[in-house]
Amino acid sequence: MTHPIFPDLQGRSVFITGGGSGIGAALTEGFLRQGARVAFVQRRDGAAFADDMSRRTGNRPLFIACDVTDTDALRAAVDQAQVAHGPVSVLVNNAANDQRHETLTTDEAFWDWSIAVNLKSYFFAAQAVLPGMIAAGGGSIINFSSISYMMGNAGYPVYTTANSGINGMTRSLAREFGPKRVRVNALAPGWVLTQKQKDLWVTPEGLRAHLDRQCLPDPLQPEDMVGGVLFLASDASRMMTGQALVIDGGVVVTG
Question: What InterPro entries does the record point to (predicted)?
Fold first, then answer.
């Protein structure tokens, strides 16, 4: 898949959570191919992925090991990225975990963990990059949500709660920091067939039923999220903020 080139992204300092696998890996590669300076965090070792990206794109990302639920570690990772690449001008909050669970068997520990991954980390990553963005005269924050809460899906109620909260947070931050020319938008994917989804939850029957709900007939791939994120990061969307961009093949209808 070939993505458009946004010349203004060349040299930009980009920070991506969960940037070494699934959708995040596609985003990291997408920004590297724009000539951006990319730092990404995740819990598992991302050194081999960084090596592969360097070979394939000629542009090496900075991998920082970090559990995004550890707020102090997340702040330290942002600081490390800014020392290496300059103040973050694009933050992509992508890290998430849609582990299946049922309301009646969910305990407080699981609730706290899921909210920490899927919502709290987004807020504190934004908090960490905002001073640099303000000092630089602007920036772009892109928060990954999901259409799952729009569809009213069962099977992961804490996750959908966090998804809905991401939209509320996005709008509030857009309003608060718009005067400083910091744009904050959400991106809501449909069912993207990452390797994790294929390994854990994709069945022929379930996929067929979901594709029947899409307007477009093709399954979503991680690469399908890249163009929208590049657009939201670039000056091409300079007057777009507080919005939720849906990329789902036409399952939900907004507006």
Answer: KR_dom, NAD(P)-bd_dom_sf, SDR_fam
Residue of 122, 149, 156, 159 with catalytic role: 159
CATH of the domain at 228: 3.40.50.720
The domain in which residue 208 lies consists of 7-246
Per residue in 76-135, pLDDT (tens digit) is: 999 999 999 999 999 999 999 999 999 999 999 999 999 999 999 999 999 999 999 999
Q: Is residue 123 part of a domain?
A: yes
- Is 253 a member of any domain? no
Distance CA 82, CA 102 (A): 40
Q: Is residue 86 part of a domain?
A: yes
Contact 23, 253 (CB under 8 A): no
Higher local confidence (pLDDT), 253 or 223: 223
Q: How many domains, in total, are found in the chain?
A: 1
Residue 149 designated active-site: no
Q: Is the dihedral of CA 160, 162, 40, 13 positive or negative?
A: positive
